[in-house]
Amino acid sequence: MAWTKKLLRVNLTAGSLSEEALNMEWAADYIGQRGLGTRYLVAETDPKCEPLGADNKLIFATGPLTGTAVSTGGRYSVITKSPLTGAVACSNSGGFIGAELKSAGWDMIIFEGKSPTPVMLHIVNEQAELVSADDLWGKSVWETDRLLHDKYQDPQMRIAAVGRAAEGGCLYAAIINDLHRAAGRSGVGTVMASKNLKAVAVRGTRGVGNIKDAARFMRSVAEQKQVLADNAVTGQGLPKLGTQVLMNVINEIGALPTNNMRAVQFDGAAKISGEAMLEPRASDGKPNLTTNAACFGCTIACGRISTIDKTHFSVQNKPQYWGNSGGLEYEAAWAMGADTGVDDIDAITYTNFICNEDGMDPISFGATVAAAMELFEMGVITTKDTGGMELKFGSAKALTWCADQVAAGAGFGKVLGLGSKRLCEKYGHPELSMTVKGQEFPAYDPRGIQGMGLTYATSNRGACHLRSYTVASEVLGIPEKTDPLATDGKAGLVKAFQDATATVDSLGICVFTTFAWTLDNIAPQVDAACDGDWSVERLLEAGERIWNLERDYNMKAGFTGADDNLPPRLLKEAANSGPAKGKVSGLDVMLPEYYQLRGWSKDGQVTDKVRKQFALPA
Amino acid sequence: MQVTFKLFATLMQHLPSAAGKHAITLEVEAAVTPNQLIDRFSVPRSQVHLVLVNGVYLAAKERNKPLRDGDVLAVWPPVAGG
């Protein structure tokens, strides 16, 4: 049990809805959320389909532990084919709507086809209906959220929506739920908007009570919450300073990508760090950070709730941004800060608010602006292209202007909304795009943290830190310290992180639990909640199966081993300062060993032997 | 000799108020070790997790080796992110 064993299928072309039994044979192999959602995507879409066409599907999937009492059990994922990368997309979000969907009695929603006019899906427990969203189209996520709460007069209704960025065709548009949590990466919001689907509003009151052994489950949950509370990272570090504590750490070790990855250390890092968020500002004596926040069921509470200095140029005449909202988190602060050379924490907080308000991935947005700034400084992009704005590294005015432009899909914002790869191709310098498979890098330079180079190159959704966060081992010493500058052993480390993360992402819990938990802590909770016997070995096998399923989908979509690569800058231009000075990524050393450990061919294809081992679909 | 001592996150409070936000430049005796500086500023050893010298990680057993002139010692409690 733990699954509701029901999915909601929404045919947007026909405007019809139907209830289906969840395929429990697949659930036994792929668990839920990321794994099971991908299994449905593989079964129901052509990997070569046009991502923004009616043939692509958009899947909201919870895990078996979503909505239960387990710590962090509020996660859901959005699975589709990405318009940014052409690869499988799976974007994971917290907040509350995942648990609400489960509590309404649904494991999953599959959207197919394309609505002829804007619609939203309204769910109250087993009742679901498509409702016209003509009045919401053109509105931001925040405005949509307010209008829907006004309309339905239910403060506990949970809403996920796309904003103007997605409607305008921004290829890295996010789906924002609960105002400032995001299924952020790979343009899942763009797919949602392409289907004329503006929002999903959910109210669930049934609860998730279908636990296999409820008494054992609650004992196990209580024990493991204690582990999180006792751990110095999940019990103290993350609540106090959030992910932003990494800004100074990664800068000190010389792996903070700066100015479109031309450098690996940023002089302004301290000014945009987690520590800086605590400093009282001159204007009103208040710090940027107001408080921390937790998603559904979370006992870590790493989230940040912040304010912008009311006297800052970005909001001087915009009182709607004077209140508290979500952010900054490390990845966003890095992309819009160090990578663009901007050390103005209020400007970055503002652009982060805009990313949430209008649904943009701040990593891809910031990295794309960074590429545009490099092209501007080279004289390739000029003020004629931008309409007068000077896109100089370090310019807070340029950064905030870019955010407003992309959010509105206006002017040069249309070009920035294409992402770094297409932007750099358009201006004749594809080598300056810091992407893998078309997706922008996150906040760790692979020259200074070697395992992350292999992580990015082999990530099934394009460059991403959350597919195998070897930073935990290479920098933070979790579960054990490895040398960030060494390539030895990194192939095995990356594979182990990839498989374990695929498992965690399929259960309905947050990967941040793994700073304290291993699968030894997770398996007893799954085993008490879910049908069947769930050992660590079975969970890991499922993770490896999911990884191979995603890889197989990408290969069928047309990717090859040649796409497991990094931009030439990271392979040829050595780091210019810090401990990694003189180093490039050792991807060429790690990749063959990785393929071997995966059991793939020398050119990176999933072999028939592996396909048979995991009973992958033909 | 001169070294720079940096404390971050919840350890910042152990720097003297005259110090910069995270860092203080110190005139120290030759052969001073990271552990000696950590103790000198009353940083509880139980809170010392990530120790870097010039950005390079020092395992616990290496923290009694002498620092050199110009070294930057940076210390964090247990932290993580992503």
Write structural notes for this entry.
- The complex is a heterodimer of chains A (618) and B (82).
- Chain A is of the alpha+beta class.
- Chain A folds into three domains: 6-203, Aldehyde Ferredoxin Oxidoreductase,  A, domain 1 (4-Layer Sandwich); 258-414, Aldehyde Ferredoxin Oxidoreductase Protein, subunit A, domain 2 (Orthogonal Bundle); 440-613, Orthogonal Bundle (Aldehyde Ferredoxin Oxidoreductase Protein, subunit A, domain 3), CATH 1.10.599.10.
- The mean pLDDT of chain A is 97.
- With 82 residues, chain B is mostly beta strands.
- Chain B has one helix at residues 34-40; strands at residues 2-7, 23-27, 50-53, 56-57, 72-76.
- Chain B has one domain (2-76): Beta-grasp domain (Ubiquitin-like (UB roll), Roll).
- Chain B starts with a strand and ends in a 6-residue tail after the last strand.
- Chain A binds chain B through residues 231-234, 236-238, 240-246, 248-249, 252-254, 270, 274-276, 279, 302, 330-331, 465-466, 469, 471-472, 475-478, 481, 483-484, 511-512, 515, 578-579, and chain B through 6, 8-10, 12, 21-22, 49-50, 52, 54-57, 59, 72, 74, 76-82.
CATH 2nd-level architecture of the largest domain in chain A: 4-Layer Sandwich
Strand content of chain B: 25-35%
**What oligomeric arrangement do these chains adopt?**
heterodimer
Largest interface: A-B, 44 and 24 residues
Principal-axes shape call of chain B: globular
